[in-house]
UniProtKB/TrEMBL annotation:
InterPro entries: CULT, Yippee/Mis18/Cereblon. It comes from Spodoptera exigua (Beet armyworm). Residues 1-22 form the signal peptide. Residues 33-160 form the CULT domain. This is CULT domain-containing protein. Keywords: Metal-binding, Signal, Zinc.
Amino acid sequence: MIFNLYFFVFISYILHNICVLAEQFPRSEKNGQELLLCRKCGADVADSYYLFSKPSPGARKTEKQHLFGQQNVTVQTLVNPFGIKFEVVTAEKARCDNIGPNQGADSWFPGYSWRICACPHCGQHLGWTFEKTDSIVEKQSSENIKTFHGLILRNILGENFTDSLIMMPKMYKM
């Protein structure tokens, strides 16, 4: 019993010192950006710096939101052929394992094929990787993107949100 008390005091001391150090040395954020994490395992899968707007003509709804330290992030509601709705943000770069061959059918982005994008750590479905299939060179700079990712909002978290979840139980606070 006394061991448990000493162990608790020791852990509390360590956690307190970590919090003090974290306040003294805040994360180096660039323009309010943050990492996007896999909701299932917490692995970092993208940086909010790479979020961009890639409108889909098949979007049921498109809106701008303040997400992941960025203003006016485009969130699109996309529906697959089975009627399942996904709220998706697009990113130029993401760390994911692409599963299966490229599929041209039922792409939400004309001129792009898609593959499943899975978390490289736990295999959770994060969204899709879209690769350009048209050989026509587009005039708009945003259309010159050869590969991008559509990330499902409910399958990712911002690192700042996860930081707010870690707290000591009330009975252990000093």
